[in-house]
């Protein structure tokens, strides 16, 4: 009997240790993704110079003392300024695919570099709100009042919440974003690793919250998007997105108020709308901002 109890206790301890180790590993994938530029995805990995755009590197500080070194691409016409917010594991160059056409249309571009690239960690949009706030403060300190936002994936989720919280953002495009951070992580765990919700996911959530000083369950752009109206938004999303399922775009669109639009080409890779149809992607982005940010 004593031996059975001993083995049972040992087994439980082993399971707990295993759960903690696995949750630490998966929370690290979220908090500390590898940052890289992939030519088949981001295309322009050498910076604005690759597009022949004049730019400067600007630096501004977040409220929690991180210095974000971002690309500033000024336009002569100065119709407005657009903050471009990259995704999880991405860099400031992610918005360059749209940069040349938006710049030619007369818009200043601030390609924001998020905290993961400056000594911080990724938080699926929780702490990145501070990065967008720092970018807004930078623009307003320069006297720019007409401000739009263009987010990609995690940057899209971040941008939805930021636009809802900051009425000075007048128009927003949200590309390949999600309605709930934890939902997209749960879907990814099941799809890519065959991991069910119980018993691992609650432990991963706990690890994320403790290690990241956040509440991952609160990162829910779908709870914020309706309050953006009557400011205009556009949602871009591949119908066969292989990471953030298309239902996130449908759910967000259903919750959003007018004016709103949804572009959903039949591409099958996450955040590759431009790659699938560059001309149409650029035209839609330019037309949107020309209509609503002027």
UniProtKB/TrEMBL annotation:
Entries under Pfam families matching the protein: Abhydrolase_1 (PF00561)
Keywords, comma-separated and alphabetical: Hydrolase, Membrane, Transmembrane, Transmembrane helix
Transmembrane stretches, start-end: 12-32
Positions of the AB hydrolase-1 domain: 82-181
Signal peptide: none
GO molecular function: hydrolase activity
InterPro entries, alphabetized: AB_hydrolase_1, AB_hydrolase_fold, DNA-binding_regulatory
Name of this chain's protein: Alpha/beta hydrolase
